[in-house]
Amino acid sequence: MMSSAIGTVKEAFTSVTGQTAKVSDLEQAIVDPAKENTKGMTTDFGVHISDPDNWLQVSNGTSPGPGLLEDHIAREKIMRFDHERIPERVVHARGTGAHGYFKVYDDRASKYTYAGVLTDPSRITSTFVRFSTVQGSRGSADTVRDVRGFATKFYTSEGNWDLVGNNIPVFFIQDGIKFPDVVHALKPEPHNEVPQAQTAHNNFWDFVGLQPESAHMVMWTMSDRAIPRSYRMMQGFGVNTFTLMNAKGERFFVKFHWIPELGVHSLVWDEALKIAGQDPDFHRKDLEEAIASGAFPKYFFGIQVIPEAKEHDFDFDILDSTKLWPEELVPVEIIGEMVLNRTVDEFFPETEQVAFCTAHVVPGIGFSNDPLLNARNFSYFDTQISRLGINWQQVPINRPVCPVLNHNRDGAGQHRITKDLNYWPNRRNLAPPVPTNRGGYAEYKEKVEGMKQRVRSAKFQEHWKQAQMFYNSLSDYEKAHLVGALSFELSHCDDPVVYRTYTSVLNNIDYNLARQVAINVGGEIPKHPIRENPGHKASRLSQLEFPAQEPTIKGRRIAILLADGFNYGEVQAIRAALKAGMATTWVIGPRRGPVYPDGEEVGSGSGYSADHHYEGQRSTLFDAIIIPGGAKHAQALAKNGRTIHWVREAFGHLKPIGALGEGVAFLREAVQLPGVQFASDLNSDNVTTSYGVVTAGKYDAGSAAADALSIKQGE
Ligand code: HDE
Question: What's the complex ipTM?
Answer without folding.
Answer: 0.97
